[in-house]
TrEMBL record:
InterPro entries, per the entry: BCP1_family
UniProt name for this protein: Protein BCCIP homolog
Highest taxon in the source lineage: Eukaryota
Organism: Littorina saxatilis
Region entry Disordered, spans: 1-45
């Protein structure tokens, strides 16, 4: 990915709901020193889940200027955990030859000063991130160890039958496990996931040809999910395409973020063999086309 600009992934017109959603999410990064588990209220987790965020986007190579935007998206994912999202953001930026960020396309020929100022602000907003981290190769990193500890402890509590196999896969030296990160602002449609996943797959293949460690045996994902009081026991996915990933995964576990009965926010861990990635992408592409 030599160029900082990549393929256009969505064309439409920005709505008022999109502005509200963007402002609410950006509020998370106002305090850089705040812990990720204190940055989001229980209600705000799904407050904008039903809003439609329509905006013209393109995929770009992650740059240093995207640090805060990427970090904010990771804060949303790791809400109420001790995972060092700043450390994870640094890893993503250090390996920007794989993955992409989704950013708004702006017109270069707009001469209006006010519009120019708005364009600059929109251009700096990271609407999504799609990348992968080799958590086998980078097991010495703080955030990777914290991620593994999180998955281990939560799986033991929420899905003890799955825990043994999950731990074996995560900690075996014979495996190469990629932590697949697919996060975006609330309201962006599932359609944006398909070109981003395809682009990531090409990036991994290119990196493998250069003898880099992106030839994975398994992929691990952490999905933002939630439950509904009206339908107890049913798990809903903030990124709807991730439900298809879960259905095709080899192992999964869902846990609540807190012990509060009124807190409906959950996280779902999915783990699947790398040879399923093509089928998963195809399944998502088929689903979003209907």
């Amino acid at each position: 990915m030599a160029s900082s600009k990549k393929k256009r992934v969505l064309e439409s017109e920005q709505t008022e709901n999109s502005k509200e959603s963007e402002e609410a999410v950006n509020d998370l990064s106002d305090d850089e020193d705040a812990d990720s588990d204190d940055n989001m209220s229980d209600e705000s987790e799904n407050e904008f889940a039903n809003h439609v965020l329509n905006v013209e986007l393109e995929a770009r190579t992650p740059e240093d200027s995207d640090y805060h935007g990427i970090r904010t998206l990771l804060q949303m994912l790791f809400n109420k955990t001790t995972v060092n999202v700043g450390d994870m953001t640094d890893i993503i930026l250090s390996q920007n030859y794989v993955g992409c960020v989704l950013k708004q396309i702006t017109e270069d020929d707009d001469d209006d000063d006010e519009d120019d100022a708005m364009d600059v602000d929109s251009e700096n907003t990271v609407f999504g991130i799609m990348t992968v981290i080799n958590i086998t190769d980078k097991q010495g990193k703080e955030c990777v160890n914290q991620l593994k500890s999180l998955v281990t402890s939560r799986c033991k509590a929420a899905a003890p039958a799955e825990a043994g196999k999950v731990l074996e896969i995560l900690h075996s030296a014979d495996n190469q496990v990629g932590f697949l990160i697919s996060e975006r602002l609330y309201g962006l449609p599932a359609q944006v996931a398909v070109p981003s996943l395809k682009s990531l797959k090409k990036d991994m293949e290119k990196a493998c040809r250069k003898k880099m460690k992106y030839d994975f045996t398994h992929f691990l994902m952490l999905c933002q999910t939630y439950q509904c009081k009206e339908e107890p026991g049913v798990t809903f996915y903030t990124n709807p395409e991730e439900e298809l990933v879960a259905e095709m995964s080899d192992h999964q576990a869902t846990w609540k973020l807190t012990d509060d009965d009124d807190d409906l926010a959950t996280r779902t861990m999915v783990l699947f063999s790398a040879d399923k990635l093509d089928s998963i992408i195809g399944k998502i592409e088929e689903a979003v086309a209907t």
